[in-house]
Amino acid sequence: MQALLGLVIILGCVFGGYLAMGGKMVVLWQPMEFVIIAGAAFGAMIVSNTTTVFKNAVGYFKATFSSTQISKNDYIELLTFLHKIMKIARTKGIITLEKDIENPFQSETFKRYKRVLKKKHAVIFVCDYLRLMMMGVDKAEPIYTAMDEELNVLKKEKHEAVNAIINVADALPAIGIVAAVLGVIKTMGAMSEPPAVLGKMIAAALVGTFLGVFLSYGFIGPIARKVGLIQHDEMIYYDCIKETLVAFASGTQPTIAIEMARKIIPDHERPTFLELESAVQNDM
């Protein structure tokens, strides 16, 4: 919603200011210029990225306009979920979680944590390391190393999607110039036309430059920045999981383990100690 509001403000200020100066919107209506610029940018994005990176970039592009930001309630439920798992593992033995780990999305234990289950990759991430513990890897160091390496790979994959969008933003002004040059070439081929006609053709050509710069700095660039922030929040979510499970593997009590994870949550989304304690008590 915030991203949509920002784009409405951008459109309102740019085109509202243009109209206030006495400009005519019909002059800016050059659909073929837009086709050249948008089509070339889209094609360049396809050429310069793998299918996976392209799909991830498109997915994040859509996520910019939906409420996917991780909230305080998401963190509370995650830490409550992890506390529940660790409590069971500590009191009944981790082997009792085997069925839950193998089928997490059908688990009776997990099903109450709906916010967590929506993040399928994170759930699988948790289950993978619980499985390692179940197999006998009960030292904190190898768990930490494996998690750290996996998260570095995940971060790199996510960053590639951001770079794909940034590259489009960087290319748009140049592609806009290409569209403008094509318009100038068309104008030069019609030099026999009267000045009034040539003026309209030159104006149409300049729209290409305008669109390229405007789409880059007014739309795609800000969206790329927002995607980067979304990814940053996602990685903090994974860091909470890592902090909790590594602490647990080192012998830390579940309550202390989730408190250690709570400390790395950004201040504006971090639940208080009492809020988390209340959620854990209500979950018992």
Notable features of this structure?
single chain, 284 residues, mainly alpha, 12 helices, elongated
Description:
The protein is 79% helix and 0% strand. With 284 residues, it is mainly α. It has one domain (30-283). The longest helix has 55 residues, at 195-249. It is elongated and about 90 Å long.
Give the N-to-C terminal Cα separation.
Answer: 36 Å
How many distinct domains? 1
Structural class: mainly alpha
Strand percentage? under 5%
Succession of helices and strands: HHHHHHHHHHHH
Average pLDDT, all residues: 90
Catalogue the unreliable spans.
none
Looking at the structure, what is the overall shape? Answer: elongated
Secondary structure: number of strands: 0
Please, how many helices? 12
Helicity level = over 70%
Q: Would you spell out the secondary-structure blueprint of this structure?
A:
Elements (H helix, E strand, L loop, with lengths): L1 H19 L4 H4 L2 H18 L2 H13 L8 H21 L5 H5 L11 H5 L1 H15 L5 H49 L6 H55 L4 H9 L10 H11 L1
Helix pairs in contact: 3-9, 4-9, 5-10, 5-11, 5-12, 8-10, 9-10, 10-11
Offer a concise description of the structure.
The protein is an all-alpha fold and 284 residues long. It is built from twelve helices and no strands.
